[in-house]
Amino acid sequence: MFDYMLESSPVKRTRQNPWAYVVSLIFQSVMIGVVVLIPLLYTEALPQQEMLGWLVAPPPPPPPPPPPAAAQPVKRLKRVSLMEAGKLRAPREIPKEIAVIKDEPMQADEGAFGVAGGVPGGVPGGQWGGVIGGVLGGIPSAAPPPPTPIRIRVSTGVQEAKIIRRIQPNYPPIAKQARIQGVVQLEAIISREGMIQNLRVLEGHPLLAQSAVEAVQQWRYEPTLLNNEPVEVVTLINVIFKLN
User: For an engineered disulfide with 130, which of 135, 144, 167, 185 has Cβ 3.0 to 4.6 Å away?
Assistant: First the structure.
C-alpha cells in the first residue's frame, strides 16, 4: 500500500546550476569584505566621539565629600571666687580641673640688656631683684633733675631799693590825648642775677599797660641773697603815669 502511495505522488526535483551558486557565494564575500574594509580605510568619516564613547568606559563619579568634623564640646570651667566681703577665704570645694596659664617667654630685642630676675625698665649693670629706674651701684638711666631754685617774695619798697637801672616808660600819645593817667601794677619774677624773668599785669588801664611792661623788662636789680646764696624774687612793681 505504501509503495503504491509513493509511486502515485511523484516528487518534483529542480536542478540547480552550480555556476550560479559559485557566483552568489563570491558576490556575498565581496559585499561582506567591502562592508568590513571601508570603515578601516576611511576612519576620518566615522564619528569619533561616538566611537570613543563605545570604546572608552565613562569615568567613575567623584567620591562624595568627607563629612564635616564634629565640633568638640566647649568645656566651661566654673569660676571659683576666693574673695568674700573684701577678704580672702578658704575654698569651699576643690575644683575638678584647674586651668594652667603659661606665660610666653619674653624675647629680648636685639641690643637689649637685662639680667635674670631683673625688672622691666632696669638698666645695664643692675642686680637681681632691683627696682625700676636703676639699682644701687648700677648705671643711672638718666641724670637727676636739677634742683628747684629757691624763690622768695619781697615787698615793693625793699626791692625798689635794689634797682640799679630804671627805664622810664613812654607816655602813650593816645593816653595823653584822652587825658588818661593812673598806676599800672605788675607782678615780676626777678632772677638770681637781678634780671626780669617774667611780668604779669595785675591792674592798670590797657592803654598804659603795654608801655609799662616794655620799660620794666629793661630794669636791673642787685641780686637778692639768702644765706649768702642768690635766690629768685617775686615782687610787685608799680609804674605811675601822671600828666603834668
Answer: 135
User: What span, in angstroms and rounded, lies between the C-alpha atoms of 78 and 168?
Assistant: 83
List CB contacts of 209: < 8 A, sequence separation 6 or more. 184, 201
Which residue in this structure is represented by grid cell 629793661?
218
Q: List the one residue out of 202, 185, 174, 200 whose CA is nearest residue 240.
A: 185
User: Chain-centre distance of CA 238, in angstroms?
Assistant: 58
Cell numbers linked to 216: 620794666
For 233, the enclosing helix (H) or strand (E) is: strand 229-241
pTM, 2 dp: 0.42
Could you say which residues of the chain have pLDDT below 70?
1-16, 38-58, 75-142
Residue entry with cell 584822652: 178
Number of other CB atoms surrounding residue 219 within 10 Å: 17
A 10 A CB-CB count for 205 gives 16
Distance of CA 156 to CAs 139, 153, 160, 242, Å?
48, 10, 6, 20
Name residue, grid cell 505522488: 9
pLDDT of residue 10: 45
Instruction: Show Cβ contacts of residue 234 under 8 Å, excluding neighbours closer than 6 positions.
Output: 151, 152, 153, 154, 187, 188, 189, 190
Closest by CA to 166, choosing from 222, 219, 211, is 219
End-to-end CA distance of the chain: 194
